[in-house]
Structure formats: structure tokens, C-alpha cells
Amino acid sequence: MPELRWGPLRRRWVIVAPERGKRPSDFRAQSPSPTAADECPFCPGNEHLTPPEIARTPGPAGWAVRVVPNKFPALADYPELELGKKGPFRRATGLGAHEVIIDSPDHSRDLDRLPLEQVERVVDMYIARLGALRSAGRFQYVQLFKNHGKGGGASLAHPHTQIIATPVLPPEAQGRLSAARRHFAAHGRCLICQLVEEELAAGERVVEEGGHFLILSPYDARFPFELLVLPRAHSHRFVELSGEGRTSFARALQGALSRLSSLLGDVPYNFVLHTAPCGGDWPGIEDWYHWHLEIIPRLTQLAGFEWGTGMFINPMSPEAAAEHLRTAV
Ligand SMILES: [Zn+2]
Ligand SMILES: [Zn+2]
């Protein structure tokens, strides 16, 4: 069963989940082996190959979007969170949830090529599942992410998105919360609201300026063609997106992904959502935190320097990346 471990050298939690890969052969370099549709557990007709369904959006194939538990969860449904300490080490039960959202019955079309109405259904399901896991009251954070392609960490080709709920606040969320809170304390306004204004004024990193969302290549991009999707109106929680905002977000997400695929082809990527945590005490968070989404094409490898220093070497300026992406539709 999974557990969380914390060590004094890095002061960060790590999830140890041995069920996800037990044998050394599981870690050997493998050539990509795309699953055929007839043996794909996410294809219609193969529903019996997944663990029991959590939710579905009805559709002509029986379903349009389907949510199932991850067969090899990184965190599990323990009855309660137990914390332990031994010498310099801390541990916690690997309490959490790990869900897979199957984006559509279509085995080969990712969000960039699905009809917009289907992307909207997927976004609705993101909101429904994030809302349900938030209100479970057992987790500190709920992380939504997508792994696309082998190089993006996807083990199944059929397009899907994942959610992992964690019993501790992950370091990345902690860092972003601290930065936003510090900025608000110093300047009396939300960091991302200010960023939206400044990036629009500068213009050179803006890829797409929609009515509700801004797509840009961040000033300090770590990777070529890294993108940020920022809501133009202030909101600390993704789950509060409603009606027209959902449609606009579906359009912005699809737009960003299709710009990447029309410029670069079917490249591996990850996207990750950054939204307010569900646990902890964050006074005034609705004023100073602003949710956002990051898209990271996986075109370069993290190498020795990055691992050693935590600093990234980006071989492409974000201004040049934005210029290329502006013309790619
Ligand atoms: Zn499939
Ligand atoms: Zn804001």
C-alpha cells in the first residue's frame, strides 16, 4: 500500500507506491507500445476492464465521459490519516484518491481535435470531480493533470486526464500560495491579476487574447513552448467556473493545445492545474490567490544541471515561442 515519506535533506514529501511498479523489468527502457483499440480498457465495449465506474456523462456510445479509479493508484482510500515520526524521518499513510477521467470514447483524438462540445463535457467533469473530492473533507489538495504521450508519462494511449487528491499540501502548491500571499501583502493586489495586465500591455509573450482567458508564454518559461492559461477575471478556485466561463475555458484549453499540435505535431505534453487548496487555514485566500493552468510540452529532458541546481536551461526564448504559436492555428 502507498505511503508518504518526508526526509530532512529535501524537506519534501514523496509518495512511495510499490504497487505501481514492482519488478526491475517494469523500469527498463521500453519502446512505445500503443494499445490497440480492441484491448484498450478505456474504449467503449471494454468497460469491464476498468475498476468500477465513479461517474459518467451519458452519450451515444453509452457514455461521453467516464471516470474510474486508477487501477494502480498512487494514493489509496485509507480509513484515516496516520502520521508517524522516527528520528529525522516522518511518514504518513498514503491516504488519497486517484481517478482517471476518460476524455471521450474516441481512442485516438485528444482534446485538441475533439468537438468543442466534448471538451466542454470534459471540463464539466473536471469541475464535478474536483468539487466532489474537495467536499470529501479528507484531503489538503486536489491535483488535476494530463499526461499525453509516452514522453509525457502516459501509460495508455487513449486520451485521459487524472486527478490525485493528497493528504498533505504538495510543495509546488505551497510555493505558489506563498508567492501569491506575499505579493498581495506587499502590493495590495492579486499577483496574477497584475500579471494579466502587464502581459497584455507588453504583448510580446501573448499567444491568444480571449475574452475570458489569456494564453501566454511565461516570462520565466522553463521549457520551449511552455504555456500559461490565465483567467482574466479574478477567481481563486477553478471549481467556481460557471456557464459561459466553462465554455470559454474549454475553447482556451483546446486552442492552446491545437496551436501546439499544429506547430509541433503530436508531441508529448503535460498540463497541470493550480487552484486553491481544500485544506488548511488561508485567511483572505479568495482575494490573493488566482487559479491558472500550465501546459508543458515535453520536448527536452531534465538533465544533470537541472537535477543538481533546480535551475532550468530553456533553449528558446518565451518571446520567440509566443511568436511561433501566434501564427499556428
Ligand atoms: Zn481506447
Ligand atoms: Zn487575481
Ligand species: zinc ion
**What strand order characterises the main sheet?**
3-4-7-9-8-13-14-12-11-10
Q: What's the architecture of the largest domain, going by CATH? A: 2-Layer Sandwich
Main beta sheet: strand number and arrangement?
10 strands, antiparallel
CATH topology of the largest domain: HIT family, subunit A
The CATH class name of the largest domain reads Alpha Beta
- How would you classify the helix and strand content by structural class? alpha+beta
Give the CA-CA distance, first to last residue. 45 Å
Mean pLDDT: 94
- How would you name the CATH homologous superfamily of the largest domain? HIT-like
Quaternary structure classification:
single chain
What is the tally of beta strands? 14
Counted up, domains total: 2
- Beta-strand percentage? 15-25%
**Spans where pLDDT lies below 50 across 5 or more residues:** none
What is the 3D form?
Answer: globular
Q: What series of H and E elements makes up the topology? A: EEEEEEEHEEHHEEEHEHEHH
Rg to the nearest angstrom?
20 Å
Helix content: 25-40%
Question: How many helices?
Answer: 7
What would you note in describing this structure?
There is one protein chain. Strand 5 (83-86) and strand 6 form a beta hairpin. It contains seven helices and 14 strands. It has 329 residues and is an alpha+beta fold. The strands form two sheets. Strands 3-4-7-9-8-13-14-12-11-10 form a ten-stranded antiparallel sheet, with helices on both faces. Strands 2-1-6-5 form a four-stranded antiparallel sheet, with no helix packed on it. Helix content is 28%, strand content 22%. It has helices at 116-135, 171-187, 191-202, 243-264, 285-288, 304-309, 318-327; strands at residues 3-6, 13-16, 55-57, 65-69, 83-86, 89-93, 97-102, 141-148, 160-166, 206-209, 213-216, 227-231, 269-274, 292-297. The protein folds into two domains: 50-170, HIT family, subunit A (2-Layer Sandwich); 172-327, HIT family, subunit A, CATH 3.30.428. The model has no long low-confidence stretch (mean pLDDT 94). The structure holds zinc ion (2 copies). Residues 37, 40, 42-43, 107, 158 line the site of one zinc ion.
